[in-house]
Amino acid sequence: MGAMLVALGGFAAAPASQSPTTLAPTPIVPVPLAGPHGADSAAAPAAAAGHTLTAQDVAAYFDGLAPDAINRANIAGAVIVVVKDGQPLFARGYGLSDVKARTPVDPDKTLFRPGSISKTFTWTAVMQLVEAGKIDLDADINQYLDFKIPPRDGKPITMRNLMTHTPGFSDAAKDLIFTNPKALKSLGATLNGTTPARIFAPGTTPAYSNYGAALAGYIVERVSGEPFADYIAHHILSPLGMTRSTFVQPLPDGWSANMSKGYRVATSPPGAFELVGPSPAGSMTTTGSDMARFMIAHLQDGEYQGQRILAAKTAETMHSLQFAPVPSLPGMALGFYQEPANGHRVIGHAGDSALFHSDMHLYLDDHVGLFISLNSAGSAGAAHTIRASVFKGFTDRYFPAAPAPAPATWKNAKADGQTLAGRYIDSRRSDSGWLRLPGFLLGQAKVTVDPKGVVTVSAFRGLNNVPKHWREVGPFQYQEVGGDSRMAAVVEGGKVIRIMTDDEPPVLSLQPVSPAMSATWNLPLFYLTMGILTLAAVTWPAAAIIRRRYGHTFELTGRAALLYRLTRAICLVNLAFAGLWFWFMTHQSPDWLSSSNDGIIRLIQLVGLVGVVGVVAPVANVATVFADGERSWWAKVSSVGIAAACLACIWFAFSLHLITLKIAY
Predict the structure, then answer these.
(1) Per-residue confidence (pLDDT) for residue 47, from 0 to 100
(2) This model's pTM is above 0.85
(3) Using CA atoms, how far apart are residues 8 and 558, in angstroms rounded to an integer?
(4) What CA–CA distance (Å, rounded) separates 217 from 221?
(5) Which residue of 26, 49, 350, 407 shows the fewest CB atoms closer than 10 Å?
């Protein structure tokens, strides 16, 4: 199950509760910012003495850190790049790009897949067209599309919504990553007819969306009249001299020789080249040195060595706060996360596929950029830990802040903690398909409060994978106990709207789960249901064996015997239905979340449908048992329990969308 959850986290933002082949922003764990309104308004704390940021010191720092870190984490290779004041300062490869061939990583030549960092190129392209007057950030995007996306709550989606991950889409993982080139479609064909369910009104709720980013790329394609990959090449890559970068899939002829292999762990065989269906969301291939050019261009407000990809004013707008889901925490710029660190204004983005894991951080006022990419997930998802440690360690070394005095505990800490206590679900979630099973049933976060008012959120964990504890220092404003991270909640009229932490990108939030879907009762019901079904299924043949051994005959005849056997058969069907779903979630292939598995899903759903229709048997069996005055109390109790368990299976099948007319997830 753990591997499955890592997989869904993939392009760009991993949910607070962990997610599934990876397609979301992975939590970055930025150092918290002192100040009430995010990166744009905070005053930096008093600076502490730090190291001077020179090429020699950076080399010594990373040479001492990276080789040991990737070896211990079972990661094959990595590239790390630092830029400063408009120039590359440091670029080095560590480990191997091909374990079998013993090929070392070369920052100038080795190709990596930076995943959702690709989106920052898509957003840059959008802003070029905004600057040219061809796209209006606040217009209904339907005017740029050749298919229609209906409004939600009377509100259309705008480009600003797409760029701040607030279009309100349910998460979409199907055909996000696959390996068969024959499954590639045009961008228009990929998007038209696959619009995810709308679960939030636009502009209201942070919910990371690969589909939304791909829509933006398709709009670039339609407005410019150029295929998306060609537009990026002509208007961003070529002006910046990024000659070893492309959005083309599969790779152009001659490029594969420099492509790093991707690994789950370095000691496993490499995976196949990953293809991204919604290509603007994560299909870029690049080198560390090419990424240096892109970082410098953004740090210099759109200019690199005399070539300008954005006007300075456009770049400044793009880098500024646009949406703050929790006003006291970092928010979203246009396409970039705010991730303030030690009082310094930092924006960035993360990127993850199943195999490659990357981070980019831009220290705007310091004119410094940091890029890291790993070609393996590593043992126990160590790629995340390494990236988080690199960002924090680099920031603390070169941009340290003096320790701030701890604020006093808020007077209403206990009462406010009790307000927050309960079950929560991530705003980035699938609401329209079978992925509700890991999301709603198995992935809910639990918020608890101790007698002193200290809050614990099961989903907000440290690098040691232990849940953090939070002390309230203002109205629903929390400081990590023994750490620097911050957490805050939006509460309106005594009702919790969302909880967020600055440990994670501002595209994810926790929302109270509805009572009907709460794991508080659904999870025990699920386990009880599986227990009853298993007991019924096991005792059926066991009883027959015992009867045969001791020469007893089956006491039931006619309708009673038939219903007894049909009831046990339906128990087996429901167990098979549950078992097949868990097998499907854990038995992952490179194309696990692709349309090629639709047939398997339909077969599993057919098994479940037999269980739904067959519930007539255990219900009728209850009536038959109670009508027979000679049946034992155990027969009566067990018949009711089995019927209730079979009815519970119907609840899970439909509430978790395990049986659907359309295979969408």
Answers:
(1) 57
(2) yes
(3) 51
(4) 6
(5) 49
